[in-house]
Fold this sequence. Notes:
The protein has 368 residues and is an alpha/beta fold. The chain has two domains: 3-62; 80-366, Glycosyl transferase family 29 (sialyltransferase cstii, chain A, Alpha-Beta Complex), CATH 3.90.1480.20. It has helices at residues 3-30, 44-47, 53-60, 108-115, 130-139, 172-176, 193-196, 230-240, 270-280, 298-307, 337-341, 348-360, and strands at residues 156-160, 180-184, 202-205, 222-225, 265-267, 312-316, 365-366. Helix 6 links the parallel strand 1 and strand 2. Helix 5 packs parallel to helix 8 (230-240) and helix 9 (270-280) crosses helix 10 (298-307). Mean pLDDT is 83; it is low at 25-75.
Amino acid sequence: MTGLPVMKRILLVVLLAAAAMYVILHCNLWKTNVYLHSDTCLPLKLQHEPQTRGRQAEEHISSQPDLNRLPPTATRRKSGLENCSLDPPFESLWNGQKIYPFLCVNDFMKLALSNGNDKLELPYGIKRAESYFRLALSRLHNCRLFNEDNGVICRRCVVVGNGGVLRNKTLGEKIDSYDVVIRMNNGPVRGYEEDVGKRTTFRLFYPESVFSDPIHYDPDTTVVLLVFKPHDLKWLWNILNGHKINTNGFWKKPALKMIYKVNQIRILDPIIIRKTAHEWLQFPTKFPRKEKPKHPTTGLIAITLAFHICNEVHVAGFKYNFADRNSSLHYYGNETMSEMIENGYHNIIAEQKFLKSLVEKQFVVSLT
């Protein structure tokens, strides 16, 4: 009987060792997802400092999860331009660099090292947010440009802005005639078909601007997330996994549900936004401390996207009447130009000048 306490002690040691191994394994498997799992895997300092948890936890999590655990993702980068023999009129804007616009989980880090994304933090790079990108991308089913090859070689595209100038222009049928129709944010189609058309190939969005009402769902639309902050990637991961959405860190309440299917979602390469901001609009890489940083509008980012997937680009709905502060800002709703003029995050004057130069150089055709 004297051996019984010894056996109990041995059994206790075995159980404690098994529990320790479980915790270690659990943390290794989920260390890229500290926001969605138990705080057991976080250092004690992070467990007791929620106010600084975002940056510290971001630095804590690994940027190299086991790729064998990630779902297969298409990585063949077919731009949509390679088979067309016609040189687009805006070819000089590429500066010899044709960009595939969507990130793929299996090689986004490799591309980041080659194009400088690894040296810049969000919104125009991925530095300090690599793990968030990897986590969100691992949830997406593919990164293809077009879901199906419809046989079109040289694509004619139209970028449809949300400007009030579209009202009563009856351009709907004309817009629907293009091979690719690009829209942005929550500009509705339903109820406005006569002026803006019915079809949508790509719709650019961010968490605060995506549709959440299923009435706007379109099975033929690919929606493209513009990432401006780590919260946007955490939002995508949470919403696709059915987790509760933390609305802190957003400039207005983000969507709390996703009406689109996973295979319809892409993430835009930040280099597209960076090219728009720094090369085309000549925004500084650093703004004075007392000045709000300026970022391109979703509309101008959409035009940049079009230049990298289309051979011919037309635009509609990008003209604004700055002289009349009470004129309609959008073709829908009741917002007025005064709200755009007072917006401190965009330089609308610079964008309008750039768009005017694009039209004058015949790089694009304006339908409005």
